[in-house]
Amino acid sequence: MTRFKLTIEYDGTNYVGWQKQLNGLSIQECLENALSTLFQILTQATASGRTDSGVHAKGQVVHFNAETSMPAEKIPYALNTLLPTDISALSCEIADDSFNARFGAKRKTYCYKLYCSSHRHPTLERDHAHIVQQLNIEKMRQAALLIVGEHDFKCFEASGSVVKETVRTIFSLDIVENSASCKNAISIEDTQKEESKDILNNSIFFENTQEIEITVCGNGFLYNMVRIIAGTLVYVGLGKIEVNEISKLIESRDRTHAGKTLPPNGLCLMSVEYKK
Fold first, then answer.
1. Any catalytic annotation for residue 52?
2. Is residue 36 situated within a structural domain?
3. What digits encode the pLDDT tens for the residues 76-86?
4. Which of 52, 152, 198, 254 is catalytic?
5. Residue 265 needs a FRET pair 20 to 30 A away by CA distance; which of 51, 87, 97, 183 works?
6. 9-29 residue pLDDT tens
């Protein structure tokens, strides 16, 4: 029996999350069905961690055991013929028998994406949270610096968690802004060519849309921790929480002092790192 390390990508929109559940289809169920079909025997897969309903992944890592003569690098090609189009195996390699995708993870990187606009943009809705007001990015970055480090992050833990230890280390927390001007629709059918240029160049017909990526790397995360951190930074950007309140907020260990939990669709697991 050989242990394999598999990296997968998925759009979590249509799933109840990674873990198999009775209330709907999960990523784990789809992957295990594909593995079992491929190897003609019941095959279980263990992930680096659970992702909630609606959360995406570009670099989720899983391990499984199988007896097969198929080269590891060929397994993703075979699996992808059996997986739905919103789940894809990206790479596979033979791992040590002791490798454990969940307990061996040393660093995880998540990205939370949101956009700020007075109007909803359907092309962004699938993997971005929508914030109506513009955000103060500089203040958000100042607040992010205070979150980096080893802290008791109880204030960023959602109710329902069963873990006893809430100390975690955040290695980095970066905020990148991409601004784009989105034209509002106007009719120029009966307008002269030169006049239409003036109309299109008039800023009244443009709306500035902020697209923001919050990328956080840590040694582990509490239940909904990244979504709550993102929500807290949004509150800072809106002026609802001051930068100088962040340290006191963390020290308080009180969830009610932090920002709201942002929607799951903006969150994506980017990568998982293991000790070599």
1. yes
2. yes
3. 999 999 999 99
4. 52
5. 183
6. 999 999 999 999 999 999 999
